[in-house]
Amino acid sequence: MCGILAVLGCSDSSQAKRVRVLELSRRLKHRGPDWSGLHQFGDCYLAHQRLAIVDPASGDQPLFNEDKSVVVTVNGEIYNHEELRKQLPNHTFRTGSDCDVIAHLYEEHGENFVDMLDGIFSFVLLDTRDNSFIVARDAIGVTSLYIGWGLDGSVWISSELKGLNDDCEHFESFPPGHLYSSKERGFRRWYNPPWFSEAIPSAPYDPLALRHAFEKAVIKRLMTDVPFGVLLSGGLDSSLVAAVTARYLAGTKAAKQWGTKLHSFCVGLEGAPDLKAAKEVADYIGTVHHEFHYTVQDGIDAIEDVIYHIETYDVTTIRASIPMFLMSRKIKSLGVKWVISGEGSDEIFGGYLYFHKAPNKEEFHQETCRKIKALHKYDCLRANKSTFAWGLEARVPFLDKDFIRVAMNIDPEYKMIKREEGRIEKWVLRRAFDDEEHPYLPKHILYRQKEQFSDGVGYGWIDGLKAHAEKHVTDRMMLNAAHIFPFNTPTTKEAYYYRMIFERFFPQNSARLTVPGGPSVACSTAKAIEWDAAWSNNLDPSGRAALGVHVSAYGDELKAVKPEKIIPKMEVSPLGVVI
């Protein structure tokens, strides 16, 4: 993984332009501290900042085909690169890098090879034979990527906004699952799964098929030549990632290089719900566990750095990015270069607490589709940029293409939350790993209620952020908010505070347009707010805003409600069926 920057067709091949591209590329150096590379062909420049994970010795970029007529700069991990190499017997590879297959696949298949790649990636490929180029981004948008256009007719590509915002007339987020072709001067979608149309699937739920698909997704991500670990919050998703990794690590190449002891990492305020649960899971699955504490003031002090790195003013993303940013620095200091994380599960399975109010399976499924399509603006952006701020890579097995295909093909009736039947959020995932004979996790962890990361690190965290913003944004400032910020007008002082900082770093109109907006409750889309009339008066992205669902919900009216009245106690049969 790395940071990439490309300037294509700028009508300027001067040394001064080369120096400018190098200067902009250095803005991405935090993403790839291990190597810097720049290839120039006429008025086209491909720059690269490398974080060396696979083949650290010889995998420096840009990468080439045999005669160097095809040049590629890539940010990504291609998990099936060994299989792809076998399909290219007549090609000679210069490196052992997993990304080395891209130039050769292009030679064989032209622009139609992208769907053959199993992994996460964003890349720019320049064909010097006709001076054409293509740009592509992975299916869900796990890797970050932006595209911009200059007044001189140039096209700019960068892993982060800061690589192009000062030099482009217009720029925007590069859409996930798309390819941009210079020959067509436009985008086309290369990723076209059945769920994208939001048609309602009808396949029966098969717990073992779901379990095996996830295990495969985790195992393929254990591709490494450097030390790694797992992020463990103690919630369902990260705990399953850690448990599966710990169970299968011994049989991988990674174990032969780095041993079978898995390192796990957790962050939180003193006394946070996540810390206690994560320690229990770590002891259960046998990881070497590292627990990092931070204070509300530590987080507040990091706000400006975080907004600069994650390049958003979205409230819930900033809330969750700050502890992840602080933790990533600690992890990198221990010599770890990448981690496995649990992003994506809530979107696929309807894990956010507001899904309790989904009126029917059709709306439930359509909301999961909307959430997956928007992941690149929220959790993927957070996981990618919060970690890469310190040169740490995050891998996300829940967003594996094959796993998503299996999970999104399940009849959503099985995913529906039915409290009267003991079916809580993500029931199909919990049941798939409820193995009485060879348990993956303690039962109460497997059925722990959803905590959003910004809540789980400590309920005082969000309250502290709100109090800090209150000191810096006055009521009079809020009265003028619609005039100062007519697009995505902040409706709270916390949102106003973050917006001021963002605009200072990224003042261009194109920059503010890259950030999503609209009302939300407990991370819902605007459409889902219609599910409960009371939510329109309680718009906050925290999970505790899901009144009547979260056991620590906002509002005194819930303090007397016992947890078992909100989520019934469950018994689980030996077959894993909740009864």
UniProtKB/TrEMBL annotation:
Top-level EC class: ligase
The record, for PROSITE patterns, names: GATASE_TYPE_2
The active site of this protein is located at C2
Q: Name the chemical reaction catalysed here.
A: L-aspartate + L-glutamine + ATP + H2O = L-asparagine + L-glutamate + AMP + diphosphate + H(+)
Molecular functions per Gene Ontology: asparagine synthase (glutamine-hydrolyzing) activity; ATP binding
**Where is the Glutamine amidotransferase type-2 domain positioned along the sequence?**
2-185
Quick one: which pathway? Amino-acid biosynthesis; L-asparagine biosynthesis; L-asparagine from L-aspartate (L-Gln route): step 1/1
Q: Which UniProt keywords apply?
A: Amino-acid biosynthesis, Asparagine biosynthesis, ATP-binding, Glutamine amidotransferase, Ligase, Nucleotide-binding
Q: One GO biological process from the UniProt record?
A: response to stress
- Name the CDD domains on file: Asn_synthase_B_C (cd01991), AsnB (cd00712)
Q: Which SUPFAM superfamilies match?
A: Adenine nucleotide alpha hydrolases-like, N-terminal nucleophile aminohydrolases (Ntn hydrolases)
Q: Could you say which residues bind L-glutamine here?
A: D98
Q: From the Swiss-Prot or TrEMBL record, give the protein name.
A: Asparagine synthetase [glutamine-hydrolyzing]
Q: Which source organism?
A: Flemingia macrophylla
